[in-house]
Design goal:
The longest helix is centred in the middle third of the chain and has 25 residues. With 102 residues, the protein is mainly α. Helix content is 51%, strand content 6%. The protein has three helices and two strands, in the order αββαα. A two-stranded antiparallel sheet has the order 1-2. β1 and β2 form a beta hairpin.
């Protein structure tokens, strides 16, 4: 996987118990909004050009595939994380997350 794709993801770290945590940022939000907008745009094009009705199943399947790919990328990235309790360089650690109780 190219490094620039792996760098698009949300910050991840291990807490003191070794549990992997992640937190979305503005890039994550922008990518989700871009995905939703493109799916609506494609649906509109299909309706305008081919008189295809809205297919909710295909719409939801697209979201499921997106979530599956996101999960696979995050699971792959977690192998490279620092040991439990160590903050990654330049990234937020457990203390930077509101409500983490740490």
């Amino acid at each position: 996987m190219p490094p620039e794709i792996g760098d698009l993801g949300s910050p991840m770290w291990r807490d003191r118990d070794g549990v992997v945590r992640r937190r979305g940022d503005s890039t994550t939000l922008r990518l989700w909004l871009l995905t939703i907008g493109s799916r609506f745009a494609l649906t509109g094009v299909e309706y305008a050009l081919f008189d295809e009705p809205f297919n909710g199943n295909a719409f939801l399947l697209g979201f499921g595939v997106t979530l599956g790919v996101q999960h696979a990328v995050l699971m792959r990235r977690r192998r490279a994380l620092s040991p439990a309790g160590a903050e990654p360089e330049g990234g937020p650690g457990p203390a930077a997350v509101p409500g983490s109780g740490v």
